[in-house]
Amino acid sequence: MKLKIEQTKQAIDDHIDNYPDLKKQRELLESIPGVGSTTSAMLLSAFSNIEDFASAKKMAAFCGLTPKQRQSGSSIEGRAKLSKIGNGRLRKSLFFPAIVAMQHNPIIVRLKKRLLKAGKCKMLIVGAAMRKLVHIIYGVLKSKTPFNENLGSAAA
User: Fold this and answer.
1) Contact yes or no for 108/102 (Cβ under 8 A)
2) pLDDT at residue 80 greater than cutoff 90
3) What are 16-44's pLDDT values in tens digits?
4) Do 57 and 30 contact (CB within 8 A), yes or no?
5) Can you give the pLDDT at residue 85?
6) Is 78 left (phi over 0), alpha (psi -120 to 50) or beta?
7) Secondary structure of the chain in HEC code, one letter for each residue
8) Is the dihedral of CA 19, 24, 25, 30 positive or negative?
9) pTM here?
10) Which residues pair with 81 in a beta bridge?
């Protein structure tokens, strides 16, 4: 079983290496702190053409990372949750990269500190980090330039 997994990973890497555009996109994705080779392969399979998404918000919605308000009239308000309408497999594959990014990606570290200071719960912060990571991914792929923490810091 372990051998099959390694062979599959190698086949994915070989496929990406055989296509210059995919190889360049993988390099761009892996320039983002928190995104490694496994995540970049998953993202490339999901976002084969970044032009399919008009904005980073639409890409986040595709991943099911948009907030959903819970309220009934004006009297009862619940906490906002992720809508989870979207690609569940993709959402799951962004969870651990977001955890890593909350420690190593300067933009997401600042986001985490700001939300902690505001008293937000840990899972809300992870969801926000996942969404922010998708926005960064969109920006990197759309601009075709490697991650630069100074470009996205104003929005964090």
Assistant:
1) yes
2) no
3) 999 999 999 999 999 999 999 999 999 99
4) no
5) 80
6) beta
7) CHHHHHHHHHHHHHHHHHCHHHHHHHHHHHCCCCCCHHHHHHHHHHCCCHHHCCCHHHHHHHCCCCEEEEEECCCEEEEEEECCCCCHHHHHHCHHHHHHHHHHCHHHHHHHHHHHHCCCCHHHHHHHHHHHHHHHHHHHHHHCCCCCCCCCHHHC
8) positive
9) 0.87
10) 68
